[in-house]
Design brief:
The structure holds three protein chains of three kinds. Chain A is mainly alpha-helical. Chain A contains 14 helices and four strands. Classes of the chains: A mainly alpha, B alpha/beta, C mainly alpha. Chains in contact: A-B, A-C, B-C.
Chain lengths: ~325, ~500, ~325
């Protein structure tokens, strides 16, 4: 095949995969393509996407952030604990707590030169400890009045569309904006695609890495708030089982784990693929227990299709 | 072909190799007789490394043939070459530093040492010791390679190549690729003594930039230029100046240097070094650089000029002396600091440090000063596009669009992108570290033209170059370095260009 | 820059000390906890630590080979769950009529090898990063384990089999002896077989291996297969220890495994470290967890302390002169 055509195909592979999956599920199960089902699906994807969008920035640099699920859980705890006393102030407080953990991760990564895999894993441990300590290891329910007073922007609907979808779209818009219009966004790509050249060009590489860690943790905290709002509780284990699907969403979308190639836009497609596969299987009547197996196989196949080997000299 | 009644150990007959845009080897014939040390010299880009890669099986020739002990051979891979009896001691060492010496020597050849399924480390070490004895070096083969000095590692590489002796039929030919570049003089002496002592076991092809070493060790010398062998002679008939003039070719005239296009530099000093020192690399370097000037730094590998260029780019901070940029003291501790002072570095390894291959042309051009295309802190894409398009047009960068990934451009156009990056960033001083490496003739000429035009506008240039003709042609003044120090200074204004031999005399 | 990379001097004396950082950390951790809570160093408690280390050790041994190559294996939890479920279903149990006893062991190890083999083949032949292959594989393994039990758990009624983890020889639980034997086997593979040495070579510089006849692809596949065997063993021990099998038995194992390997001093970049380091790393991680309980540290603070310790241990062990780019 002509290399240019092949490259073009690889570029659109994730979205073709998504369309194909939607069609397959749609043909197999009439109910799936109804507007209401699709809205629910989109709303369900929102939290996963927000978290994955944050990780995208770190993966673009060639790093990884394994702290996100712990940070999200901690943020839900902070929010649930502070809502009664601070009201709306609980939200920025939860975000700030996440950002601080991201800062700690970034400092360990750039200053202590600990690989991001390890530093983020460790910071995840710290986040979990904090969440357990704050919550007294319990789940913290959010009262009915509090929910009505403060959580309308997470649980309500606007223009007939669930608020979560709006939140996901806002995050998407902000991330695309950051990617496209800020120095940080451009520098991230440059560092991921060619760190030595970025260094020689005077790009403040350490600062870019630090910022990416902060952005990732802040978005994880935001995802934790949305999830906490949906479940009307904060819990130190709230976002467990979110980490690996979130990383999978990034990679399935076609962002390379080696860095330099990718976009939050691709992560959205990836998150939708992961969701469609999960929800679609239920619609198709796939045995709940078999779903995990299918998910694993689809993940591997999706990466096989979307990955651009020309940009990875040695596959590790 | 036979020499002295004996078949050559290794013979190349009319070997040809082309790459897109470059005729890398032109009908090269060469022979290595049994027990002989053959020197191979040429400037960078003369075709030496392509030749080595063909002999070690990395590249396949487009034409001609290779004969080993008179038989035609086809070398499909390095493993193939080794099995034939052509071994290589690599310049960038090929030992795994996390394995022991014995493991490195027998890597991939552990079978004879298996007892059942387990490796008999004692037997392996003993066998390694026997190999090390061939090169008469007393190191413990069970030690981890990391702990050896570079000279010791070089010997281990040699011992490793000598294991081929027992595996092949016929003569062993060992290629030594710049083996002395990381060694001290005493270590070089030992290496040479070993090579001489091994001549009854193997023939050698010795590639080096240091002509005195070539003359010292080789029996015969081949000189390459522009992909062809231009001379062959016994070392006894050669001297360094003769070899050097053969390497650089016919003497050049004013027309060649395009002296009329070179503008004089301006009086103001933009950068000055006094006693500049980087421990272990160069010492006590003084110079002044003026606006619009090209200051050439000549010297062989190991003279210290490479590290000096990196210091000025902010990549290897000096450890002593003073440096002033636009009259202010500067340390150049990071590339960021250099960039903010208006210095741009065009690196030797263009693909690693120069371009970001996976980003489009437009993003590469603006990378050095992204802030210039922002409005209110945000990237103004229209402005960025216009900027990039302006430079693509002004520098005649051949690219389908400004959105094309830089990795898909030719080497010359990639280099123009790097230059565009710095000119666009408003660099007033540009450090050109081997700016035409790997470029074909046409692309080189375009880079020269570009250098002349930016200096005419007042940009100052520090130039370290692959060839002397390039240095002489482009520079206003030249400093010559040898053994970490400046040995001579030349004026090289139009009409008063120094002779290449004058420079060579102070380099070697 | 190539030239400066070549010119790096061989490791200095202080740099060489770095190799012993994990042992020093281990000694300091044990000494400090012992000073605060003397019961920590009692024979009883040390046996307890050994017992708690048995399963993590088996898993970390497998992961060590993968990390030595510079790859990563996230399939630990899935294969452990499969191993435990398969074990429970093959010995005398409350769900079917099987009663294979110790014959179940080779079968489960074979299953582990099969999963590892598939990991390796998919990774090498389809050129997919090990991170994604093994992540997908973990889902698949947990899925199969779930399907096999239809989401239920199964009790092991074979008490002789359970002796594999619970019985004692010389006062030390059998599980510990099994894990020690596994360590010995792993050490012999690492130091005395071609595969072991080639794994180091792949991690030390895969590009250089292209100049030699080392079959890089085969080494990778075999290493993943080997790792699968060790995870299978971890599954067997888990089943014997808890007397049951279910699909979530691997939960929480993945990150402690990788943490133990890395804290032990095996570099994620590959080529440095080994089985001996992993033994130290497991003892640090498990000893610390045990010590914190003894010192009355609230359980919820423990993951945090662990996190801080991991960063400190790795930061101390990072050789700053070597890796210019950290990712």
């Amino acid at each position: 095949m002509n290399p240019a055509v092949a490259a073009r195909l690889r570029d659109v592979a994730p979205i073709l995969t998504l369309i194909l999956l939607v069609l397959v599920v749609g043909i197999g199960s009439r109910g799936f393509l109804s507007p209401e089902t699709l809205l629910v699906l989109a709303a369900d994807t929102s939290t996963l996407f927000i978290m994955a969008a944050g990780i995208t920035f770190v993966i673009l640099l060639g790093g990884i952030d394994l702290s996100v699920q712990a940070v999200a859980s901690m943020s839900s705890v902070v929010m649930a604990l502070l809502l009664p006393s601070l009201g709306y102030g609980a939200f920025p407080a939860a975000l700030a707590a996440g950002a601080l953990l991201g800062l700690a991760n970034g400092l360990a990564f750039t200053r202590l030169r600990v690989p991001s895999f390890i530093s983020s894993l460790a910071v995840g441990g710290i986040a979990t400890a904090l969440a357990l300590a704050f919550s007294g290891t319990r789940s913290i329910p959010i009262g009915e009045e509090l929910r009505h007073a403060y959580l309308w922007w997470i649980t309500g609907r606007m223009l007939g569309i669930p608020a979560e979808i709006w939140l996901g779209l806002i995050v998407l818009a902000i991330c695309l904006f950051v990617e496209r219009y800020t120095l940080f966004g451009r520098w991230s790509l440059a560092v991921g695609a060619g760190e030595p050249a970025a260094v020689a060009s005077g790009v403040p590489v350490a600062l870019v890495k630090l910022l990416a860690c902060v952005v990732s943790a802040t978005l994880a905290a935001f995802a934790g708030m949305v999830l906490g709002g949906r479940l009307v509780a904060g819990s130190p284990t709230l976002a467990n089982e979110f980490l690996l699907p979130a990383v999978a969403a990034v990679v399935v979308g076609g962002t390379a784990l080696t860095g330099g190639v990718g976009s939050v836009w691709r992560t959205l497609i990836g998150a939708l693929i992961v969701s469609v596969v999960r929800v679609g299987m239920t619609f198709l009547g796939v045995d709940v227990f078999v779903q995990q197996i299918v998910l694993g196989i689809v993940l591997i196949l999706a990466v096989w299709i979307t990955i651009d080997r020309a940009k990875i000299p040695i596959v590790k | 072909m036979s020499a002295g009644g004996r078949t050559a150990a290794l013979e190349l007959v009319g070997v040809d190799k082309r790459f897109p845009g470059v005729h890398a080897l032109k009908n090269v014939s060469l022979e290595v007789r049994p027990g002989e040390v053959v020197g191979l010299i040429g400037e960078n880009g003369a075709g030496k490394s392509t030749l080595m890669k063909i002999l070690s099986g990395v590249y396949q020739p487009d034409g001609g043939e290779i004969r080993h002990d008179g038989r035609k051979v086809v070398l499909r891979s390095p493993i193939d070459a080794a099995a034939t009896g052509i071994g290589m001691v690599h310049q960038e060492q090929s030992l795994l530093t996390n394995l022991t010496v014995a493991e490195n020597i027998w890597l991939g050849k552990e079978k004879p040492f298996l007892k059942g399924r387990l490796i008999d480390h004692k037997a392996m070490a003993a066998a390694a010791r026997r190999q090390l004895e061939k090169v008469q070096i007393d190191i413990d083969p069970t030690v981890v390679t990391e702990k050896l000095s570079f000279a010791q590692r070089q010997m281990v590489e040699l011992a490793k190549v000598l294991t081929l002796e027992e595996e092949i039929e016929g003569h062993l030919v060992i290629m030594l690729d710049e083996p002395t570049s990381v060694l001290e003089q005493a270590e070089i002496d030992i290496l040479f003594a070993r090579v001489r002592a091994l001549r009854d076991r193997a023939s050698f092809v010795f590639v080096s930039h240091r002509l005195d070493e070539i003359l010292d060790l080789s029996d015969r010398v081949y000189v390459m230029k522009d992909g062809a062998v231009v001379a062959e002679m016994p070392s006894a008939d050669a001297d360094t100046e003769k070899l050097h003039s053969l390497m650089v070719g016919r003497s050049r005239n004013a027309e060649y240097y395009k002296e009329n296009r070179q503008k004089p530099y301006r009086p103001e000093v933009v950068m000055a070094a006094s006693g500049l020192t980087l421990a272990g690399a160069y010492e006590g370097v003084d110079f002044e650089l003026h606006a619009g000037e090209v200051l050439g730094i000549a010297g062989v590998i190991g003279s210290g000029r490479e590290e000096l260029a990196r210091t000025l780019g902010g990549l290897a901070p000096a450890t002593g002396g003073t440096l002033t940029v636009f009259g202010r003291p500067a340390r150049l501790a990071t590339p960021g600091e250099a960039v903010s002072l208006g210095i741009g570095y065009v690196p030797r390894e263009r693909r690693v440090e120069g371009i970001v291959g996976f980003l489009p042309v437009v993003a590469n051009i603006t990378l050095g000063n992204l802030r210039a295309v922002t409005r209110g802190g945000l990237i103004d894409h229209a402005k960025e596009r216009t900027t990039a398009e302006t430079w693509v047009k002004r520098l005649a960068i051949k690219t389908p669009t400004i959105r094309t990934l830089v990795m898909n451009l030719s080497g010359g156009n990639q280099q123009k992108v790097v230059l565009a990056k710095w000119i666009n960033a408003g660099a007033k001083i540009i450090v050109l570290d081997h700016p035409t490496r790997g470029l074909d003739v046409g692309a080189k000429e375009e880079v020269y033209e570009l250098v002349r035009s930016i200096t005419a506008e007042g940009v100052a240039v520090i130039l370290t170059s692959d060839t002397l003709e390039e240095t002489i042609g482009l520079s206003h003044r030249i400093i010559v370095m040898k053994d970490k120090r400046v040995t001579e200074r030349f004026e090289a204004m139009p009409g008063g260009k120094p002779d290449q031999l004058d420079l060579i005399r102070h380099m070697v | 820059m190539a030239a400066s990379a070549i010119r790096l001097p061989p490791a200095s004396r202080i740099e060489r000390l770095r190799a012993f950082t994990p042992v020093i950390v281990l000694v300091v951790v044990f000494a400090v906890i012992g000073a605060i809570a003397p019961a920590f160093l009692s024979i009883d408690n040390l046996v307890r630590i050994m017992n708690a280390s048995a399963i993590p050790l088996c898993l970390a041994l497998g992961a060590t080979f993968i990390i030595l190559m510079g790859s990563i294996d996230l399939s630990v939890e899935g294969v452990v769950a499969m191993g435990a479920v398969l074990t429970a279903l093959l010995v005398q149990n409350g769900a079917n009529a099987n009663d294979l006893g110790f014959l179940a062991i080779p079968l489960v190890l074979l299953m582990g090898a099969a999963f590892g083999f598939v990991n390796g083949v998919v990774h090498v032949k389809l050129q997919i990063p090990s991170f994604m292959v093994t992540l997908g594989m973990s889902f698949i393994a947990i899925g199969i384990a779930t399907v096999m039990l239809a989401g239920e758990r199964v009790r092991i009624t074979d008490t002789t089999f359970r002796e594999l983890a619970l019985g004692r020889v010389l006062g030390i639980p059998m599980g510990v002896w099994v894990a020690l034997a596994a360590t010995l086997v792993a050490y012999v593979i690492q130091t005395r077989t071609r595969l072991g040495r080639w794994i180091f070579a792949v991690g030390g510089g895969e590009d250089i291996l292209r100049l030699t006849s080392v079959p890089v692809g085969r080494v990778r596949i075999l290493a993943f297969t080997l790792a699968g065997v060790f995870y299978g063993l971890g599954g067997i021990l888990s089943a014997a220890q808890l007397g049951q099998g279910h699909a979530l038995m691997g939960q929480g194992r993945l990150f402690t495994t990788i943490t133990a390997v890395v804290v032990g001093g095996t570099s994620l970049m590959g080529g440095q470290g080994g089985v001996q380091n992993t033994l130290v790393g497991v003892l640090i991680v498990v000893g610390l967890a045990n010590g914190m309980v003894l010192m009355g540290v609230p359980p919820y603070v423990q993951t945090g302390v662990q996190g801080v310790l991991i960063i400190a241990a790795v930061a101390l062990a990072v050789d700053r002169s070597r890796a210019r780019i950290i990712k």
